[in-house]
Amino acid sequence: MKLKGWKDLPPATVVPASTAEEVETGQWRSMRPVWDESKCIHCLQCWIQCPDRSIKTDEEGKVTGIDYFYCKGCGICAKVCPKDAIEMRPEADFI
Predict the structure, then answer these.
(1) Given its phi and psi angles, is residue 83 left (phi above 0), alpha (psi -120 to 50 degrees) or beta?
(2) 36-94, which class in CATH?
(3) In the chain, at which residue ranges do the beta strands (DSSP E only) sit?
(4) Is there a contact between 65 and 35 (Cβ–Cβ < 8 Å)?
(5) What sign for the dihedral angle of Cα 50, 51, 56, 58?
(6) pLDDT attached to residue 74
(7) I need a labelling partner for 42 at 20 to 30 A (CA). Which of 2, 27, 34, 64 fits?
């Protein structure tokens, strides 16, 4: 059985609360950040500014990618990157 999305719920429905760590908020995204490892200098500005904790790092503090499960596509990471290592692209390009 497929779970209903928010668009399937009748108006004035109460939705149970939960944290962003429990909800696949990446489904809300219309733009996707695409990380270019070759341009990245691992300054972690994207990691610091990401409101969804979607920038993945390793034990050495280097960026390793983006967690699209939580990423909402706000584009803050791309805006703060000093080397343009993150490009925002339409989510439709990945369907």
Answers:
(1) alpha
(2) alpha beta
(3) 31-35, 55-57, 63-66, 86-90
(4) yes
(5) positive
(6) 94
(7) 27
Taking only the tens of pLDDT, the chain with its 95 residues reads 777 776 777 777 666 666 666 677 777 889 999 999 999 999 999 999 999 899 999 999 999 999 999 899 999 999 999 999 999 999 999 88
Tokens of 54: 């979607």
What letter represents residue 82's amino acid? P
User: 28: number of CA atoms within 13 Å, CB side?
Assistant: 11
Write the Ramachandran bin of 54: left for phi over 0, alpha for psi from -120 to 50, otherwise beta: alpha
pTM across the whole model: 0.75
Tell me which residue has tokens 């990618």. Answer: 65
Domain boundaries, the chain: 36-94
Token pair for 71: 């990423």
Token pair listed for 41: 């200098």
